[in-house]
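Please fill in the sequence for the structure shown.

STRUCTURE ENCODING:
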């Protein structure tokens, strides 16, 4: 009996020491325990916007659980704007009529082995003019935790009407601290479009990811522009805190196949969150193949957590390079021109040397041994993504 008591006491002391140690960590260190690799999942906005509903979300959860996306790493089912109803007499936020029981919806998502995400704003209203979290941060955080929420996207929007620009870090920290007080691990996605160089302070206020540019659209030029704004901020990304160039448009119909391959390849090289934004229940086999290629996803989810850098350019032809945890290097050959082009990756430009085995990650095949350089025919608006070992 005495020995059992002593063992219980030792376990209690050890647990207490671990808790004290965790609480002593700075916010960025505690939050790096969340989102150790870029979050993967689905967000309702790009395809459904304010047409989102309980039924759409359940269909999306069903699709991810059944079509191979969950196995590939997509686990977050995130409701964007337009779910909010009114606050009750105590100020507690309620969902609108399209979401009759948010707790039941969260339970359904969790029953699929998935995680539940939601959306709000630090301002009085969201971008779509629904109820924001202004002056209700603790109440809203507690409600999200009660519903089983695992991810919060927090969109600046009308906050500019009640806060000064220089208050932005403190405003985002306020909701982060409210989330921590719930005791529930909730990934914190800060959406303020790259304002005030958020990558320089986002981790210090508890962000797991932060938007680095304005909204994406399903257009090659817009996607390409956003991708290129990420160059130069790669040092701010790493396990637990990621630069976020916005959600994926793959499969929404306004880009060609090669352009969607470019989109997915760039996001993976950038160690970006991979949040599909298409109709998962009506997805083509081609779109599913892009979203679930395991060797391409592995570049995004590489545990080293390094964001690619822009290594070489001549006119519309580029090469981006990304060191990987297994001492290999990913190289992305990009053709932004209007004709097919043969592009050569010289080892000296991408920071490697010696003989390398080159593997084409989209074709999923080894191309052979190469010394000093590798060349490939790259289609218009397309890419060749290789791993050098």
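FILLED IN BY: designer on duty
SEQUENCE:
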């Amino acid at each position: 009996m005495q020995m059992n008591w002593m063992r219980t006491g030792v376990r209690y002391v050890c647990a207490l020491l671990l808790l004290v140690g965790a609480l002593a960590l700075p916010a960025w260190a505690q939050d790096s325990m969340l989102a150790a690799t870029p979050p993967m999942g689905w967000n309702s906005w790009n395809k459904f916007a304010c047409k989102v509903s309980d039924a759409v979300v359940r269909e999306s959860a069903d699709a991810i659980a059944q079509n191979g996306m969950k196995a590939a790493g997509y686990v977050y089912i995130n409701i964007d704007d337009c779910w909010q109803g009114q606050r009750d007499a105590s100020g507690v936020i309620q969902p609108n009529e399209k979401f009759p029981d948010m707790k039941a919806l969260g339970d359904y998502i969790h029953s699929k082995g998935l995680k539940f995400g939601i959306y709000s704003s630090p301002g009085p209203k969201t971008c779509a003019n629904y109820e924001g979290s202004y002056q209700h941060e603790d109440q809203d955080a507690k409600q999200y935790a009660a519903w089983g929420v695992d991810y919060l996207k927090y969109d600046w929007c009308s906050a500019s009407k009640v806060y000064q620009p220089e208050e932005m870090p403190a405003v985002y920290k306020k909701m982060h601290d409210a989330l921590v007080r719930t005791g529930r691990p909730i990934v914190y996605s800060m959406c303020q479009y790259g304002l005030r160089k958020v990558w320089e302070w986002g981790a210090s206020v508890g962000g797991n990811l932060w938007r680095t540019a304005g909204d994406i659209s399903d257009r090659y030029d817009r996607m390409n522009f956003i991708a290129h704004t990420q160059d130069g901020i790669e040092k701010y990304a790493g396990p637990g805190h990621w630069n976020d160039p916005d959600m994926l448009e793959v499969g929404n119909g306004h880009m060609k196949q090669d352009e969607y391959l470019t989109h997915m390849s760039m996001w993976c090289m950038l160690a970006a969150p991979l949040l599909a934004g298409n109709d998962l229940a009506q997805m083509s086999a081609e779109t599913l193949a892009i979203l679930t290629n395991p060797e391409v996803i592995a570049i995004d989810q590489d545990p080293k957590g390094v964001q690619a850098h822009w290594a070489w350019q001549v006119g519309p032809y580029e090469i981006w390079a990304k060191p990987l945890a297994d001492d290999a290097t990913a190289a992305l050959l990009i053709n932004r021109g209007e004709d097919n082009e043969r592009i050569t990756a010289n080892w000296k430009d991408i920071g490697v040397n010696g003989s390398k085995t080159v593997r084409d990650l989209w074709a999923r095949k080894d191309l052979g041994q190469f010394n000093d350089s590798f060349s490939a025919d790259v289609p218009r608006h397309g890419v060749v993504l290789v791993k050098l070992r």
